[in-house]
What does this fold into?
Amino acid sequence: MILLINGKSHEGKKRILPVSLLAVAATFDGKLPYEILDGNHMDDPVEEIATHVARTGARILAFTVMPGPQTASSFELTVALKQRFPDLIVIWGAYFPTMYPRATMSCPGVDYAVRGYVGLDLADWLKSLLEGSPILCLPGLVYRDPESGDLVQNPMSRLVDINTLPPFPYHAVDMEYYMRPTFLGSRTISHHISLGCPFKCGFCGVVAMVNGKTSAERADVGAAGVARLVEEYGANAIEFNDNNFFLGEARTQAFCKAIAHLGIRWWAYGRADTLDKYSDETWAAMADSGLHMIYIGAESGSDETLRKMNKGGKQSVNGVLKLAETMKRHGIVPEFSFIIGNPPDPVADMEQTLSFILKIKEINPLSEIILYSYTPVPQEGEMLAAAQEAGFAFPDDVQDWSSEHWQRICRRREGELPWITPEIRRKLINFRLVMDSAFPTNTDGNLKAWQKLVLQAAGGWRLRSNFHAAPYDLRLLNRLIPFQRPETAGF
It folds into this structure.
């Protein structure tokens, strides 16, 4: 028996479908016995998973691990369960072990790590573990040499053709449980129809997973997957978690026309420079298909900062402004994200971004604004070099990565980074509070219309006067009218 574990990854008990584990399970569904367990919805994950191990006689625990809270929860579970069941084989996969394989293997309880995406050869490897004769040539495998104990990292495999993979085994989870109300619809579910991104942005962990490669379902295959969610499970809204959904205009247009009759509303990630090239015919098809909002990494109000970020392609400040106007014409909401606090001068960077955000709001007042703090990733470039010059260094072991300090950094909150002094941190926090108050997100279904007006009035005068200092009024107001930050709370 194999237990696929989704460690606790977010605050609260938001019901987010563990798509990554469904994708893994699809490669051996019907060949090997398994169960999917979601730690986000357990009161005591250690005890509940231990009960499953004892009941099923599980031999393998396979964790999907993202940097941040999920690293901490996976580390805690690994240590506790390995102590109780020393013969368990523990595997870590997904973004954290892909980016930080040595830190992952610093935990004695982790037997193997797998970097990158998996393919159909995963079944044979797992079977070899269950039979006690492990195959050690799996692409992306990280393990300790049986004789020397030295760490071995196999070369990563080529990105799998997603069209060759089996459909998700939804029977392995309670789909009704994961249907949840959002601003998109009363029965929203997560999905994806492509892998990877062709760009190599200097702040993005996707680069480590795919190195600029992509694989997308054909339009008819993607549409069939959406129809399955609607017709078999009653979904009326889809969150597409693709790294870069809009890969190819012809494919996008065909996909939108194929799902238009389903009557759903949907949301996806996209790039400004890609979408800027789309024709009005394609935009009309996207709107007709129920596309409500696109998350777009605007990142900065400076073309020079975009260059330092290695944003790639032809993205520019003017291109983002053009896109804001295009989306206004077609009735699709842009959700622009920005990275603030970038080295070497985080305050100047913040002020430049503020001016740019105000321009966007003038063009398209319905634009959603999301603010992140810059967090380095292990990818060579000017951004990482500036961070390292300021004294930044990645932890060497998973225990440090699991600390509250590093969880905050990985969540792109105002963690203690060497180029962020206490004074600068205070300015960034105040800036973020003013922005969140002046532009409360429309994705927060708990906010009433009058509450939004109060927040906008309280934050608006500060924004217009560029006065962010000592926002005690906004802190008090946030206690009286708690509002959601979409970058940390999601939908």
The mean pLDDT is 91.
